[in-house]
Amino acid sequence: MRLVLPRAPLHGPAAFPWMAVDRPWRYPPPSCCVIDATILVITSPARSHPSTEVIWTVLDTLPLLGGLSDAPIVAVCDGCRASSSLEPIHAQRVRAKLERDPCALSKRGIVSDDVARNYESFQKRFAQEAASKLLRRVSMLKLDSHHGFALAVREGLLATRTRFALVVQHDRAFIRRVSAADVGAIAAHFDAQLCCRYVGFPSGTSKRLAARVANQYKLSALLERRSYTLRGGSETSGETSAEISADTQTAAKMGTETASMVFSAGNGDARTSLLLRPSVFWYDSNHLVDCTRALEIYEPFRHATAEMHARLGPAGVGRFRIRRGDFIEERFGVEQRNFLASLSDAPTEELLSAFDWFGTYLIEEIAQLGTRGVKRGLGGSPGKRDTESDGGDTEGDDTTCGDALPLFADREGRVTHISHIDARSSLTPSQRRQGAVRTARRLERE
Fold this sequence. Notes:
The protein is of the alpha/beta class and 446 residues long. The protein has helices at 53-59, 88-100, 113-132, 149-159, 180-192, 209-215, 220-225, 248-254, 291-295, 300-303, 306-318, 328-341, 348-358, 429-445; strands at 37-43, 73-77, 81-82, 110-111, 138-142, 164-169, 172-174, 198-200, 228-231, 241-245, 261-265, 272-278, 287-290, 360-367, 407-409, 418-420. It has 14 helices and 16 strands.
C-alpha cells in the first residue's frame, strides 16, 4: 500500500516548480493551527519492526504541541537494501557482520533479509492502522532507495506544501507541553529574525549547550547578542504544575539519566521563562524549520556567504556538503560547531555574521525552582560524557502524556522537552517495561 501526500508530487526537485523563495502557492493553515506547518516523522529499519509501537508512541505525544492539531503528518520511510539483493561478492563480504548484528550496516542502507521484510511489514501495518483510525492527516512518503536521515529530511521538505516543517525522529517523543501561544511565538521568531532557519526542542543533552557556548567555546558575545526572551518568568506557561517533589519512582519509570528533579502535576500554573539561545550545533532531534531556508544547507557552495568561502576555501566549504547515509548533526553539525568555535577570537561582528548564516536556535525553558521537597541527582549520572550529539541520550523511554505529565528539569531549572525511545532494541517499549516488572517481582521474591 502506498499512501501519498494530497495535492503534491513526491519525487525529485524537477517535480517542484513552486520552490520559489516566497512560495506564493502556500495555502492558509487550518483554523485550529497557529502556524503553517507539516510534521515530518523520519523512520528507517529498526529491530523492533514489524511492531508499530515506537512510532505510535511518538505520534501520540504530538498533541503536547498546541496549535498543530490539524497539521498534516508525513511519515518519511527511508529505503534499504536486503542482503540478498546485493552482488554475490558484496553479499559474501557483509554476511558475517549481518549475522552478528542484522542492522550493523543500516547506515549504508544494508540490512539482513529478515529486517528488510519486517520493515516492509511495518510500513504496511502502519498504513493500515492509520486508515483504521481514520487519521486522514497522516500519510506516507516511501523512498525508493536508501538516503539516510539527512537526505530523507530533504525529501520530506521538498514534498511539503507549508512554510514550516516540524522534523521528528521516529524514536524521539515529546514529554513537555508547549502551549499554542508559545508555538506561535517560536514561529514569529522566524519573521523577526530573517536569518533563522532552525529552532530545536531541548533534550537532556542539548539543553546544556547554551552554557557550553560561553564556557567551553568562549563565545559569550554570541550568547549575549543572539539570545531572545519569548516569555518572561512572571508569565505562566499554561502547564498544571505546582511544586517540586522528589518523585524517585517517576524518575525511575522515565528511565532518565540527567533529570535531577521532577515537577509533579498539581493545581496552579508553573512559572517558567521561555528563551531562544544560539546553537552552535544542528541537532537531528526534534526541531522546527523554515522549509525554504533549511533546504539551503544542502547546497553549501551555492548558499554559503562570501566570508565563509574566503575563510574556509573550497575544501572547507565542501566539508559541509551532506552525503547519502549522513545524519545532519554528524556532518553539517560538526562542521558548524568547528567553524564557529574557530571564531572565538574574531571580531564580534564577524562572529555574529557567521552565526547568522546558520541561524540555529535552541529553546531554553527555565523553571523557577523552590526548595521544598527537592532531592538532587535523581537518576543522575555524573560520569556521563557531555557531548554534542544526541544519539546516545536514553532519557524518558516510558513517558505518558496524560494530565499528570511530569516536568523534568536539571539543577539550574532547565526543562527537558524531548525523550529518546531506544529503537535499537528488538523489544518494544512495552515489552521492556513488562520485563522490568517481572525482574522487580522476582527480586522481591528472592
